[in-house]
Fold this sequence. Notes:
Blueprint (H helix, E strand, L loop, with lengths): L1 E3 L20 E4 L3 E7 L2 E5 L6 E5 L4 E4 L6 E7 L5 E8 L2 E7 L1
Antiparallel strand pairs: 1-9, 2-3, 2-9, 3-4, 4-5, 5-6, 6-7, 7-8, 8-9
Amino acid sequence: MTSFLPPYRHKEISIDTSILDKYAGEYALPSVIKVYKKEGTLWMTVPGEPDLKLLPESHTKFFSSDKEYDWQIEFMTDDNGKIAKTYFIFSGLKKEAKKL
């Protein structure tokens, strides 16, 4: 599924960093993007790009701290808190990714 989201101003919030472990992993988009926890926050590795630090704007949505890259990740969870779907958003283009 692909959709488009209009731009908006991101605002970092404080969260319990223990939830970040469940988000770490590799995601197919179709290239493989690695999401990992480092120094109490999420980071992502996109092939051919520098690693990006991700800041929380909710308990399930994160955005790139680098103003040159408009990357976002949104995790949709089920009633038990398990990841049901993951979306990567780049410059407003929202694509669903599969966790490997």
